[in-house]
From TrEMBL:
Cellular component GO terms held in the UniProt record: plasma membrane
Pfam families on file: MFS_1 (PF07690)
Compartments where found: Cell membrane
Protein name according to UniProt: MFS transporter
Membrane topology category: Multi-pass membrane protein
Species per Swiss-Prot/TrEMBL record: Mycobacterium dioxanotrophicus
PANTHER family to which the protein is assigned, alphabetical: CHLORAMPHENICOL EFFLUX PUMP RV0191, PURINE EFFLUX PUMP PBUE
TM regions (residue ranges): 41-64, 71-89, 95-118, 161-180, 214-235, 247-269, 281-299, 305-326, 347-365, 377-395
Length: 422
């Protein structure tokens, strides 16, 4: 029972992180009025969030390896609560940007810290499924921002709504401080790296492990498409280019969450039972994403609704598919550097999403409209990422398998030398 209590407490902090991540997305109009910001300035909030989140992953991983999950979950919740408090009380645009950066920093340390708890508290056979459940249940934060937070924002105004989110963060911080422990023994072995040279050497060592890079390219190839769609360009594409109503577009995004939950459970069970088939599953997810986008973009005009629904369903599998990358990191890295490895993996999808979002913005700005023809060119940027990720997976998978065979042969030889036949 205790492992589930520890995990659920960490999960609550992650749900709060997703809530904090998505509050600005549902309060865009109110933010524009409060901070006198035009649409381009508001979109920069999303870009800033992704930059801070991705850029903080390796430092967060290093801190996680040194201090353990408990301190980082508590610190992350405190940072996010502070940022939301500033947003609640300030009307200054520079202060809002700074607050958003602080929220992004707290968000960045939370997810990998919760994931780090899983292999310490659960049996190896349970780890893939619990990892998937972490990502799935965390999306409840998006539901909280879309329903109760939005209702409070509409009914009571900006300050009460954001203050309530800040209080929620303080509660998560207090619970994590009281209930979360790094291991069943309540402690974690800290890394011995102290100098900058040692830290850089440790980061290099972790990155050079084929399993880390396999996880990085897995996360990159599976996650970015649905992230770009959900965070920035999905609603304009559906409403302006495809002519759907805002209500229908919102329903499709809700469908995306439902699909992610269902697919996450299935992927968690599959990878737990068939660990040697994980990379094949990832390649199939990438191929299906590329194929459905090819079908949609090849149409000369607007796509039928059933095809757009199919598009949403298929790309939404990429979210839970990216979680397999963390499983690769766990498999091929020792516990002492697992946080750094998970941070590196988590960078993959968000760096790709950032580059694609920015590239699409430049293409659409050059085109001067949000037409289907303009979006057809803009969405084509995705193919470069899929090719890079696929090549990266194939190369690193081969190296990881070779390394695993060498390790198995070494262990057999050591066992033979320790117990020679009589």
């Amino acid at each position: 029972m205790r492992p589930w209590i520890v995990w659920a407490t960490g999960l609550l902090a992650y749900i709060v992180a997703v809530l904090d991540r998505t509050t600005l997305g549902v309060s865009g109009l109110q933010a524009a009025d409060r901070f006198a910001a035009n649409p381009s300035v508001l979109s920069s909030f999303v870009v800033l969030q992704v930059i801070v989140y991705a850029g903080a992953q390796v430092p967060a991983g290093l801190l996680l390896d040194r201090f353990g999950s408990r301190i980082l979950i508590v610190s992350g919740a405190g940072l996010m609560a502070t940022g939301q408090l500033v947003l609640a009380l300030s009307e200054s645009l520079p202060a809002a940007f700074a607050a958003r950066a602080v929220v992004g920093l707290g968000d960045a340390v939370t997810f990998i810290s919760v994931l780090r708890l899983v292999p310490h508290w659960f049996k190896p056979s349970q780890v893939p499924l619990v990892t998937q459940l972490t990502g799935i249940c965390g999306q409840l934060g998006q539901v909280l921002s879309a329903v109760p937070f939005l209702a409070l924002l509409t009914g009571s105004g900006w300050t009460p709504a954001y203050l309530s989110v800040a209080v929620f963060g303080v509660v998560a911080m207090a619970l994590a401080l009281a209930l979360v422990r790094n291991t069943p023994h309540g402690r974690v072995v800290a890394a011995e790296t102290t100098t900058v040279h040692d830290i850089l050497a440790s980061v290099k060592t972790v990155w050079l492990r084929p399993g880390t890079r396999l996880g990085f390219f897995t996360h990159m190839g599976t996650q970015f498409s649905v992230t770009v769609f959900a965070l920035m360009w999905g609603v304009p594409y559906l409403t302006v280019a495809q002519g759907l109503s805002t209500t229908v577009a919102g329903s499709l995004l809700t469908l995306s969450v439902v699909v992610a939950i269902t697919a996450g459970i299935a992927i968690g069970i599959f990878t737990g039972r068939h660990p040697h088939r994980r990379s094949r599953l990832v390649l199939a997810i990438i191929a299906s994403n590329a194929l459905i986008w090819t079908v949609v973009l090849a149409l000369p005009g607007r796509a039928p609704l059933w095809l757009l629904v199919t598009l949403i369903v298929i790309i939404s599998v990429g979210g839970p598919g990216s979680m397999v990358g963390f499983d690769f990191a766990r498999t091929f890295n020792p516990s002492a550097t697992l946080g750094t490895a998970q941070g590196m993996v988590n960078m993959g999808g968000f760096l790709a999403a950032l580059l694609v979002m920015q590239s699409m913005g430049l293409i659409l700005a050059h085109a001067g409209d949000y037409s289907a023809a303009s979006f057809r060119v803009a969405w084509a940027v995705q193919y470069a990422v899929w090719v890079l990720a696929t090549v990266g997976i194939l190369i690193t998978r081969s190296k990881a398998r070779k390394l695993m065979r060498v390790e198995q042969e070494r262990m057999l030889l050591e066992g033979f030398e320790a117990h020679p036949p009589r």
